[in-house]
Design a protein that fits this description.
alpha+beta; 4 domains; two-stranded antiparallel sheet; 13 strands; 10% strand; globular
């Protein structure tokens, strides 16, 4: 036992109202006595002495009541061999009895002086408390829905005032309270204080949930605010005891610079603010920016240096985006199609006159279709809808170019219109845009599913493999014949020119003789080959920068104190036998392949005692679930 004047509470006062009592923390062991027996803090002491506050950084506990009530220098307990004796002696001490009287006894046994003097004062106090709760409820609703509080120049027209007027119909006391001339807790300063108080309470609840989780993963991204200020977004992913995945938004932190050292410092400050040890951290998911994922001085490298058990997962969404980008750029046909499509969207969207003519022609068309969508310049996996809008409005666009040429006087604009009109009259463009739409549609669907926050990295691998298998099936001759027939039928409907051979080029054996259909088969096959390769490489290795052997010893050696090797081996044997029997009874087909979803269903079907019996296996499964597939949450 020792006395210290060091600061024990975080700067934001996030845990002052209650002691920090982590139940699932692996408390460090230290030698005690002549025999140097290893001892550690016992979580059961939290139930026996609820006032204990555990400080993870120093591996000590102190009395939360004494520090809070009397503002005393904390008396730290760190001798776990005689800890119970020290706790019992502290309960009998004068300072502890005084703290209990101030925080526990007096608030329950005493009343306000005004309540003793006047019964009317007591009734008024109760009514005011109820009215204040209604104001807080309204503030909470507006804050949660991200609605403005005050009106445009007149506070009486604000959302808060109108909401209180609506509630006073059900609460007569609120109507009387709002008519008072005294303070009614509606000023802008008090509103901001209420919002801050509610926000801190949410943060405390999140911190409690994180403390009760064995592992967490941090997801972060830097972004520029509309006010041209750099902000750092932090989200913590955790897995609860019932195996539910939650991603908690911690906050936006303004920073003057976005270098790796500054961002790593902000990331560490978040954990200090929540009073969470970075020893809980097992994963980190960032984008490909050098400041975040640089292998020498990036944030990922700095975090890994402080906690070697943290595995960096490159965002699947960015990997898929780069795969689609490289795939389409390698094909001249696809590249020319996207350039022409981008020019079409510019000519329509950036000219109110041409857009008006297009909308008029589209409305007169018997087939209903959506409007033209602009191509995203950075995200390649959200372009299928744009290409689909061009295909569905193909005939209306052709008519728009004819009318636009007649009224356009600018030479440059007329040349651009003539260029896209000539391209759209060619079979090559129609074939290319329909082929691009088909491939990007699968990429878009994969990207949309990968952004699901409950999806783990392992599940993302399975979903990505499904997409690769689907694209592979489009590589055979039957799929090409079907695609050729579909494009040819569309071309006849739109009066597009017949397919033609490209300009002949002289070679060593004279002029090459190729079929027209075969000419278009090569770009489809090459594009699909490239898509398969890029998807497979980018998505199957994005979350495995550190290859681990599929061996129990390697896993336990990497994660060290997270698992007991002998106990985990025994539990895995029990799990293998019991899970196989349960799974076969449920599936009724021994040949059915087991998935990660089946393991989750199996654990949820177990009783509490059975889960405790397989605690190490469950802990291993939580480690799998805590690794995310994408960094989409922090980017939003």
């Amino acid at each position: 036992m020792a006395t210290s004047t060091s600061k024990v509470f975080p700067d934001d006062q996030a845990v002052l109202n209650q002691p920090h009592q982590p139940l699932n923390l692996d408390f460090p062991k230290r030698p005690f006595g002549k025999k140097a027996e290893l001892r550690c803090f016992r979580p059961s002491w939290f139930h026996q002495w609820p006032f204990l506050h555990y400080h993870e950084a120093d591996d000590v506990v102190f009395c939360h009541l004494c520090v809070k009530a009397l503002a005393l220098k904390p008396i730290k307990f760190s001798n776990w061999k005689d800890a119970t004796t020290g706790f019992k002696n502290h309960v009998k001490s004068a300072c502890h009895r005084e703290a209990v009287e101030v925080l526990v006894t007096l608030p329950v046994t005493t009343r306000d002086v005004g309540e003793h003097i006047s019964h009317e004062h007591a009734v008024q106090k109760v009514n005011s408390q109820q009215a204040l709760l209604q104001v807080l409820s309204s503030v909470r609703l507006l804050s949660k829905q991200d609605l403005a509080f005050r009106g445009d120049g007149d506070e009486s027209d604000g959302n808060l005032q109108q909401l209180l007027c609506l509630q006073r119909e059900k609460h007569p006391n609120l109507a009387h309270w709002l008519k008072r001339k005294e303070i009614v807790y509606k000023s802008s300063q008090i509103q901001n204080e209420m919002i801050k108080t509610l926000g801190l309470q949410v943060l405390r609840n999140i911190a409690t949930d994180i403390h009760n989780s064995p592992f967490v993963t941090v997801k972060a991204d830097e972004t520029t605010h509309v006010s041209n200020r750099e902000q750092f977004t932090v989200i913590i992913r955790r897995v609860s005891e019932d195996l539910q995945v939650d991603e908690e938004f911690i906050g936006l932190y303004q920073t003057s610079t976005t270098d790796a050292a500054t961002l790593a410092g902000l990331n560490k400050a978040v954990f200090i603010r929540l009073n969470v040890s970075m020893k809980k951290l097992r994963g980190q998911c960032f984008d490909g920016a050098s400041a975040m994922s640089g292998y020498r001085t990036g944030v990922a490298k700095r975090v890994n240096d402080s906690e070697p058990r943290v595995v960096f997962a490159y965002c699947y969404g960015h990997a898929l985006n780069l795969a689609a980008n490289d795939t389409l750029k390698q094909s001249k046909l696809m590249k020319d199609v996207l350039d022409t499509t981008r020019e079409i969207t510019k000519l329509i969207k950036y000219s109110p006159r041409r857009k008006g003519k297009f909308m008029k022609l589209k409305e007169s068309s018997p087939a209903s279709s959506t409007g033209i969508r602009v191509l995203c310049p950075t995200r390649w996996t959200v372009r299928a809808d744009t290409l689909s809008s061009i295909i569905s409005n193909y005939e209306a666009l052709q008519s728009t170019w004819e009318e636009a040429l007649a009224i356009t006087k600018d030479t440059e604009a007329k040349a651009r219109i003539q260029g896209v009109s000539a391209q759209m009259d060619m079979f090559q463009y129609l074939y290319g845009i329909m082929l691009s739409e088909m491939i990007l549609r699968h990429a878009d669907n994969l990207s949309r599913n990968l952004q699901n926050k409950s999806l783990s990295a392992e599940e993302g691998q399975q979903v990505a493999q499904m997409t690769v298998d689907t694209i592979t099936s489009l590589q055979n001759d039957d799929a090409f014949d079907l695609m050729w027939e579909k494009v040819s039928r569309k071309a006849r409907t739109l009066n597009v020119s017949e397919p033609q051979l490209p300009r002949k080029r002289k070679c060593l054996g004279g002029f090459a003789r190729v079929r027209v259909k075969g000419t278009f088969m090569r770009p489809q096959k090459n594009t699909i080959d490239s898509a398969i390769m890029k998807h497979s490489i980018s998505l199957s290795t994005a979350a495995k920068p550190q290859e681990l052997e599929d061996d129990l010893k390697a896993v336990c050696a990497f994660y060290k104190d997270d698992f007991d090797q002998e106990m985990l081996y025994a539990e895995l044997q029990t799990f293998g036998v019991h899970f196989q029997q349960t799974y076969q009874l449920q599936s009724k087909e021994a040949s059915t392949k087991m998935t990660i979803f089946d393991i989750k269903s199996y654990f949820l079907s177990l009783s509490h005692g059975q889960r405790v019996h397989l605690a190490q296996v469950k802990r291993l499964y939580q480690l799998v679930l805590v690794m995310p597939a994408t960094n989409a949450s922090s980017e939003r």
